[in-house]
Design goal:
By secondary structure, the chain is mainly beta. It has one domain. The protein is built from three helices and twelve strands, in the order ββββαββααββββββ. It is globular and about 45 Å long.
Length: about 200
């Protein structure tokens, strides 16, 4: 019997993990304290060249903000995940995982943290996934505002409160990458853990 089913796992602040998710299983991402983003990636387990695609998903949805009932497509137009529950209703699928370069270019950090990109790369390496395979993540709870006239983007505090969650049903066998985001602005300038559960 798989003792991970139904168990709540914690991702410490500014870190990330990778794990497998079987077809038919549900991944629930939980914000235990509120206002904390989690970067989510999904790769097809038998062929990790197939990965979630922001471009295809948003194209097929014809809108920027996804929530309950929406599928998340791969770069080959297959549904990898489906959002089956969502207590927040605002997530981002536009911005790339934060990285050392993010902190150097945007924030001017001389000694930057490796960010979600570095955390994902390290965790996913165990599955043979290289940094160049990491796409735009589905940024759970991230609140990106888009000006409809100018197209300007603004990162605002997440709308999630303590205990809010989003659940994703796996439509095929997957490798998942998941972080507790490392970018100050994305998390209202406070780093907190992320919880997750597989059912």
């Amino acid at each position: 019997m798989d003792d991970t089913i139904g168990r709540v796992f914690e991702i410490p602040p500014r870190s990330g993990v990778a794990f497998t998710l079987d077809r038919g299983r549900m991944l629930t991402v939980i914000d235990p304290q509120g206002e904390q983003v989690a970067d989510l990636l999904a790769f097809v387990r038998d062929d990790t060249a197939e990965v979630i695609s922001s471009g295809r998903t948003l194209d097929y949805a014809s809108r920027l903000f996804l929530t309950t009932g929406d599928p998340i497509y791969s770069n080959r137009s297959n549904v990898l995940l489906r959002i089956v529950a969502d207590t927040v209703g605002r997530h981002d699928f536009l911005l790339t995982p934060c990285s050392a370069e993010t902190f150097r270019i945007i924030y001017g950090d001389e000694h930057p943290h490796r960010g979600c990109f570095g955390n994902l790369a390290a965790a996913l390496s165990a599955y043979g996934i290289t940094p160049d395979q990491i796409p735009i993540a589905f940024n759970v709870f991230m609140n990106v505002r888009v000006d409809g006239e100018t197209g300007a983007l603004a990162v605002a505090p997440p709308l999630s409160r303590a205990g809010d969650h989003a659940s994703f049903l796996a439509e095929t066998d997957l490798v998942i990458g998941l972080t507790a985001c490392s970018a100050l602005q994305s998390n209202n300038f406070s780093f907190k853990p992320i919880h997750y559960r597989i059912d």
